[in-house]
Amino acid sequence: MRRTPLYAAHQALGARFVEFGGWEMPVQYTGITEEHHAVRQRAGLFDVSHMGEIELRGPRAIAVCQQLTVNDLARLRDGQVQYSLLCLPSGGVVDDIMVHRVSSERVLLCVNAANTDKDFEWIAAHRDGAEALDRSGEFALLALQGPRATEILSTISPLPLAEIPPFSFREGPIAGRQALVAHTGYTGEDGWELYCAPDDAPALWGTLLDAGAHVGIAPAGLGARDTLRLERALPLYGHELTEETTPLEARLGWVVRFDKGDFLGRDALLQQRAAGMTRRLVGLVTTEPGIPRQGYPVVRDDQVVGTVTSGTKSPTLGKAIGLGYVANAWTEVGTQLGVEIRGRVIGAEVVLLPFYKR
Predict the structure, then answer these.
(1) Given CB 3.0 to 4.6 Å as the disulfide criterion, which of 37, 69, 270, 308 pairs with 324?
(2) Residues 107 and 99: beta-carbon distance below 8 Å
């Protein structure tokens, strides 16, 4: 397994490690629930250096990205970020990504760790005159998230953070080290993602923990990252998104800009929109003891009508929550369903998403 430049720092903090996408990553330090609450109430610091970074360069960079992704890059100015998806011609999702428009000839894509090689091959195969570079080895990535995140970061950087809107980025110094500083995150809270040189990551990690000590910052692992994103109903590739699911089924139709012109998957998605979907992603809250987990059947009147894709006990809400794909007839908010857990069916209700709002 691969390790990030912060592996020794995680060891020193007593982290428990798990394998994730071919990387040995910290799943927790003091505990998932404690780290989750730190992010919701104060601030948490994540090492997400396992994520991949792919760049498109040259006069064709914007045009190629427009063809590869479902969102409309023409809506972005330099220094802005966009959530988007790479799709197959079938409409299935290759990956969900963050698109950073650096300039008219440079676009930086942040992709999921487990998909980096696959994504690069897909992008390179469709680069159509643009230069495609896998720059993953040139970056470490730290995510500072929570209501006190901006306050903490402002103590160690001269960047005008208050002038950087959400889904925007700047390049500049953090504690004397150069970084791309993006006002983005994956927790449902305010926060920042810091792309820096791998050799600078340990010093920045330590400096950020020191700068946030007075407000109770906590190092946070993948366990809290998952419970935080699930409360906000943010999709995770391999769970809510796969090559067999489409953005429309995943309730990501707001990302798909049909009016921008042609892109990979457009025809299939237009056909699906016209024909109507047979299933959709829903939010579930159990009404009896039990936690829905990935792969558990969703039932109605003794018939399987769907499958859970993610589930957990929500630390913020104190309830068991889950996401899952359910046959379209049973997707209305308030619908009573069941989740089969090891042969026992427990009650569950379809609820409005997201489960948690800041």
Answers:
(1) 308
(2) yes
The position carrying tokens 């230069």 is 131
Contact by Cβ (8 Å): 55, 133: yes
Distance CA 269, CA 258 (A): 9
φ, ψ at 301 (rounded to 5°): 55, 45
If you average pLDDT over every residue of the chain, what do you get? 98
Closest CA to 102 of 151, 135, 145: 135
Strand partners, 326: 280, 306
Asked if residues 296 and 307 have their Cβ atoms less than 8 Å apart, the reply is yes
Query: How many Cα neighbours within 13 Å face the side chain of 260?
Result: 20
Tokens of 2: 């691969």
- CB-based contact 6:49 (threshold 8 Å): yes
Domains in the chain: ranges and CATH = 7-49+139-231 (3.30.1360.120), 52-135 (3.30.70.1400), 278-351 (2.40.30.110)
DSSP H or E run through 55:
strand 52-57
Q: What is the pLDDT of residue 67?
A: 98
Spatial distance between the Cα atoms of 81 and 95, rounded to a whole number of angstroms: 16
Range 287-316 burial, b when 16+ CB lie within 10 A, else e: eeebbbbbebbbbbeeeebbbbbbbbebbb
Question: Among candidates 93, 118, 306, 321, which has minimal Cα distance to 229?
Answer: 321
Question: Alpha-carbon Rg of the chain, whole angstroms?
Answer: 20
Helix ranges (DSSP H) in the chain = 7-12, 32-41, 61-68, 116-125, 149-154, 201-211, 222-231, 266-275
| Predicted structure pTM score | 0.97
